[in-house]
Amino acid sequence: MRVLALLDGTLADPESSLIRIDDLGLLRGDGVFETILVVDGKPRELTPHLDRLDRSAAMLDMPTPPRAAFERAVELVLGNWTGSSELALKLVYTRGVEGGDGTPTGFALGAAIAPKVLQQRADGLAAVTLDRGIEPGLAERAPWLLLGAKSLSYAVNMAALREAERRGASEVVFTTSGGSVLEGPTSTAILVRGRTLVTPPAALGILPGTTQAALFRAAERQGWTVRVEPIAVDDLYSADGLFLVSSVRKITRVHTLDGKQLPDSSALLSELQGLYESEY
């Protein structure tokens, strides 16, 4: 099932042709998006997602996304959803048609969560480390690279996932050439040592995670230590747990990295899932 709402406050048929072939989001990936988890009709972290949509649009020199229109589109999707209790809600905002009047294209699309993602939540996954070609300070030196923006230009991310599949894995942990951890193609990396959660800093040019932020808030309230600091790739293999988190995947453990079995983090996963769910 899918439900599509446009920014003019109307519903549309997701099976119909709606996007112009000269839309710059299609032609060049020139736009931004957010994906939000909805559980029992309630979108999680909606305001942080809308804030991040604003930041990404600003980085692309796009007009500020019309928040009221997006909020109305969200309500339309949720009000017409009759599928499962969980869904993925995608907000998309492109620069509009090439040579047009500059009016952006925007919509909200609700869709069922892929069975593969649900399976990985339960069973964990195998990942590989891949060099992203990013070094510390690059985001500041070269802002035109849009590091840290959630743009529609996902060709590199999808190519990395295909490379992971060729290597017998299903996910990727991007790294710098110097051996520091970045993020996954569609997720934030979290390392666990004892009662400490660690995630790499956004200054490396990665996207600050909304799910990571929610987990850190809950963990800190329960006496955990949370840190945002660089992580060396070598530390991933000996940590108590390595997790990839995102809105739709929630918290997913990595059980195998680069063909090496990691320490069993099943019990730790249950604890972290409990912390995360306590936020809602």
Automatic annotation (TrEMBL):
- E.C. designation(s): 4.1.3.38
GO BP field: carboxylic acid biosynthetic process
Named from the GO MF annotations, one term is:
4-amino-4-deoxychorismate lyase activity
Q: Please provide one cellular component term from the Gene Ontology annotations of this protein.
A: cytosol
Q: Which Gene3D superfamilies match?
A: 3.30.470.10, D-amino Acid Aminotransferase, subunit A, domain 2 (3.20.10.10)
Q: Which Pfam families match?
A: Aminotran_4
Domain of life of the native organism: Bacteria
Q: Which residues cross the membrane?
A: none
Q: What is this protein called?
A: Aminodeoxychorismate lyase
| Source organism of the structure | Lentzea tibetensis
